[in-house]
TrEMBL record:
Keyword annotations of the record: Acyltransferase, Transferase
Full protein name: Acyltransferase
Any one GO molecular-function label of the UniProt entry: acyltransferase activity
Organism of this sequence: Bradyrhizobium rifense
Length: 255
């Protein structure tokens, strides 16, 4: 068959580079259904509820505030070591359409545990709607993606292999989900070290959550505890912040 060659767009080149950077990372995954009924009740009563991505970003960062292993990355240079970051840095996979092509771009949010939930949500919504040139992380990653291949490989090597730069380029954890498109258990691939994915809310008030992590950084038992703590944080701190943001007005019913 005679087909038609197509040029690789910059967003697709970014994904190709990302997949290359993710090769060789020894990922392990753990999944669990979390009961989030208190969170759902708080969200249903909120005047302007935050999106699910924002809630999971802040909740995971709050857990990581007390769990240093969740702020730890594996670094190869100048010698193999573990590097603990002083704060969480989240990367959120943002689905966009650029020049008619569906693509995914990473939005970076530093220290989401110190931000208001509404501010985290605003950063994510901005990344979904603003032109690429108006989002600092998008500008940064597109500059690197435009480089010639040798320089691009060098920039990725620096970003991947020095502990401090891992936090700047790839964050301490990533959040990705296809729940907005009908759900499914997503096992995304990134350089890590931690990737959080969530599904749709089920009728029994549960939501399925998957955490994938770099096994060089930690083991399964701490992640099992993290899932338990994540459920608690969603139902307490995050639910409380939704309630404090303002309730929906109650409409009087005519008699």
């Amino acid at each position: 068959m005679r087909g038609q060659p197509k040029n690789i767009s910059l967003p697709r080149r970014l994904i190709i580079d990302l997949m290359r950077a993710s090769m060789g990372v020894p990922f392990v995954s753990l999944s669990r259904s979390l009961n989030i009924r208190p969170l759902l009740e708080a969200r249903a009563g909120a005047m302007a509820p935050a999106g699910w991505a924002a809630m999971f970003v802040k909740a995971f960062a709050l857990v990581a505030r007390d769990e240093p292993v969740l702020r730890t990355v594996y670094a190869k240079w100048p010698w193999p070591s573990l590097y603990e970051l002083p704060k969480s840095v989240a990367l959120i996979a943002i689905a966009r359409v650029e020049d008619g092509e569906e693509c995914v771009m990473p939005q970076r949010i530093a220290a989401p545990e110190t931000m208001a939930l509404a501010a985290v949500d605003a950063e994510i919504r901005l990344a979904k709607t603003a032109p690429i040139d108006e989002v600092p992380m998008f500008r940064k990653i597109m500059r690197a993606t435009r480089l010639p291949l040798p320089l691009r490989r060098l920039s990725w090597a620096v970003g991947l292999n020095f502990g401090r730069q891992r936090g700047n380029w790839f964050g301490s954890f990533q959040v990705s989900s296809v729940a907005a498109y009908g759900g499914g258990e997503l096992h995304p691939i990134t350089p890590g070290p931690f990737i959080v994915s969530y599904g749709v809310v089920e009728p029994d008030h549960t939501i399925h959550v998957v955490i994938r992590w770099d096994h060089r950084v930690t083991d399964a038992a701490p992640i099992a505890r993290v899932l338990t703590r994540l459920e608690q944080v969603l139902n307490t701190e995050i639910a409380a912040e939704l309630r404090s943001a303002g309730a929906k007005p109650i409409r009087a019913v005519g008699t």
